[in-house]
Amino acid sequence: MKAPLSWLREYVRVDATAQEIARRLNVSSLEVERVLDVGVPDADGNLARFAVGKVVEAVKHPNADKLQLCQVDVGEGEPRQIVCGAWNFGVGATVAVALPGSTVFSKDGELFQLGEAKLRGEASRGMILAEDELGLGRDHAGIMLLPDGIEPGTPLADVLPIHDQVLDVTPTMNRVDLLSMVGLAREVAALCGGELLPIDVVDPPIRHPELVEVTVEDPDRCPRYIARVLKNVTIGPSPIWLRARLYAAGMRSISNVVDVTNYVMHVHGSPLHAFDRSLLSGGCIVVRRAADGEELRTLDGTLRKLDSRDLMITDGEKSVALGAIMGGQESEVTDQTTEVLLEAANFEPVGILRTSERLGLRTEGSNRWEKGVDPYSAEPAAILATRLIVDLAGAELTGAADIHSGLPARPVVRLRPERTDRIVGLTVDPDEQREILGRLGFEVDDEWDVTVPTWRARDVTREIDVVEEVARVVLERVPHTMPLRRLVAGHLSEDQRLRRLVEDILVGAGFAEAYTWSLVATDPDSRAILLPAPMTSEQAVLRTTLLSGLVDAARVNVDAGNEPIALFELARLYLPTGEQLPEERWRVGGIVQGGFTAARATVETIYAALHLELRVRRAVLPQLHPGKSAEIDAGWLGELHPALLDGEWGVFELDLATLFEPIPERIDYQDVITYPAVDQDIAVTVAEEVEAGAIRDVVVGAGGPELREARLFDVYRGDQIGAGRKSVAVHLSFQSSERTLSEDEATAMREQIVEALAERFGAELRA
Amino acid sequence: MDAKTLESDALTAIAAADTTDAIETVRVEFLGRKSALKQALREVRDRETGMTLNAVRERLEAAVDARDDELARAELDRRLTTEKVDVTLPAGGGGRGHLHPITQIRREVEDIFLGLGYRVVDGREVETTRYNFDALNFPAGHPARSPQQSLFIDDKTVLRTETSPSQIRTMEAQQPPIYVVSLGRCYRRDTPDATHTPIFHQVEGLVVDEGVTLADLEGTLDFLLKKLFGEERRTEFRTHDFPFTEPSIEAYVSCHVCDGDGCPVCRHSGWIEIGGAGMVDPKLFEFVGYDPERYSGFAFGWGLERIAVLRHKIPDLRELWRNDLRLLRQF
Ligand SMILES: [Zn+2]
User: Fold this and answer.
1) Total domains in the fold of chain B
2) Chains A–B, number of C-beta pairs less than 8 Å apart
3) pLDDT band at B161, cuts 50/70/90?
4) Cβ of residue B215 closer than 8 Å to a chain A Cβ
């Protein structure tokens, strides 16, 4: 909301500058996004060069048909001659005059300095102003006419806000009371030591009284409905002061009656609506839910289709407004309107957001109602609006109704002032707490029973809410301390520590970490959890594997020409359980150039770093090359199926809980120093289909406790070996921690191994 | 043979040797098995001659060793001067990988709080509406409860919209004192743009203990912000409104680009909004069965992306999900 300061100062007397006010509001009340300057510049005495003038003579320019030659009294004794291009005034008009040397806006909105000029041979010593030349509006159709009776020579700045500063504010959800000038004024008075000024408005008397019939069928959604009927209304433009205020507040001037409803909403925060009463053919107001399928053309010209969740204002025969959101086009106030039914109602937030979201229709009104407007504010709003319509449109009030079944009682909360200190961590003298609350409109009695003002009744219902009221006002004084932290110790859990370790291992192995979406287009698990209303079809399923994200990430890098590519992700997966919540498991996955070997080497590195033995089993998995795919207890590894991405890619995915489970709790020292190891190599030929893992298992099984290492280091195929067979070389290392092993002992153990290999695989010793 | 002459001849030959090969020849000639000295030593019969010859031998051996060391060192120095490499030529290192910038910030935040005595807890990402909204005091009709703003699995299940449900789960699982942070993915129905992605990361902090105050919250956040953005930063706390805290505040840090003078990064205000915080609302304590008269607490929930974007001057948040190595290698 935009709050012009000159307008705000009508309700609060305060010395603080706009910047000081903005600062205090920002800390203690609401966000002031910026302070805008509107109107002509207030620098170098510019404002003193604008005056109220009275036209004492106006004739056609002798040398130009389109220009007037005017003599204007600006309080200098002698009138000034001013040439003017507008014709919407004559002798006697009170006008705004810029004197030479002043800075004003051109038609294009640029600032320029006015000089004395000769126009078609006649001197022009000033300018009679249109509202756009002062930055008070956009109208350039004619010059601005001021009300009669202002003394010529009066500084224009005393009559109009020709320079103003505007606070652009955004309150939080709970502070809809600050979407109003009176709410802001109260806040400024409390924070900046200002004096709140009363709004003195006398409700016009009712003339020729008539019955205004209002029926509210849904009082839960519409707890209050004030209707007022005004007759003999003359629709016309608003006076300049009203136009200038609306313009500075960011609203468009439409007509006196519509402008009044917008103006009063801005003042009191309670939205109003004006109907052309002659178009309410039913002659009354009935507030009810829409019938399913009912239609209404709203003010913006759109035909809206409604259902029983939507609240309607009807005239007893037909709907005339979408309650709390927008009026209907049919009953709109127009130039022809002479009778107005003014609505100053109160709507509950429930349902409004749903209707406005469903229809994609947010308005100034719905924005306030959906946050919960004070039902008490409808009455001062109705009175001020009535007064203004009577004053500005020459109308008379002929009927009024105020339908409600009791307005809500103000909450009473007991405050312990020492409780404030305990929560805030700052001693705030009880007298000061009492004073702060008083300035904010709370009443505090001797027992510290705090009566909450009506405009905060939804939000402040508990002691802690009252504590917050004090806390926000003293917020800048709160010291910075640290909690005691007795009986606590900071540490990562074992799993968290190991997750970091896995990340570090992969970074050390040359992998960059990717972040990919947890929501994917499709998932191989048919039970994977679907979002019933995804944002896009690309993000519709909660993934059960990291693979598709990593393949996409690899593709991005292939397309970018990046080399070498090695990416990993450590993230959660969501495994369906058949119950409400899926099982969320941590997984690490990787994709790397270099096919199966690169995947296997990476997984070996992870296992070695975690002191785990890697045991791999051949398996056929759909995402992998059928000849280069394997399972591990913790997951799988292999070469990516080429149908998924061109090239040879190593991929793996490991479930971290399963991976971490067998990690030894501690490592026991083994003496590998005192007694030397005896190293022996063997090479055996076996059938091609015998796998290295199986050979290693037999070697380890037959080797006995002193076989410290058995490492397959070469596989050879060739003519000497024969077709269908291969030679496998194994490095053996025997060592005891109790004595030196002799060559003979080592040889005996080696022979046992060779025998076992011969028996199991028909292996033949080559060397 | 005259020992003196032999010694002086040998010393002359040693001095004349100018390579390690030459000195080896001299060693063989004067100290080898067939040398005159060894011959004489084998034939010696009296003690006095033996002592004299042995003394000559020791002196000559020392002289040969010394000359050998000298020549070997000179030869090594000569060889090394020829083995020059271009030390400015890169050797192909730097092949290590990179942690994602969000992980780096995540760890930094975790480490700051581990140092302060907090634990790190892993929350859930798929949550019940009970934990994500009800327990956190979101009123009925709050916009976050709407499918327009949040991603639902069904009426009762939602992808968590903030890390705060972990507060409730932590409080349910233990009694105070609680000092924890929880970091992870959150989900909102935000159309991706430069400042929004539907998946983002938050850090949640929760403290519940006897005597915890708003001043403690501000002190903790002041410490964190200075660690993240520099010790010379100033902090400011402004009132705000959240369903799960009362009083609520929003933390600001003085702009690290202009130091408060105003620039486009801080939208000419000198301050940068970092995120929300507040004192745990007593409603949450009621929900988990803590006595709000005995315990008080604070909580905060901030976006990690926002911290990353500010610290690294990343112009568009979506870059963090691009996974382009040219980008990741910068961090
Ligand atoms: Zn800045």
Assistant:
1) 2
2) 228
3) very high
4) yes
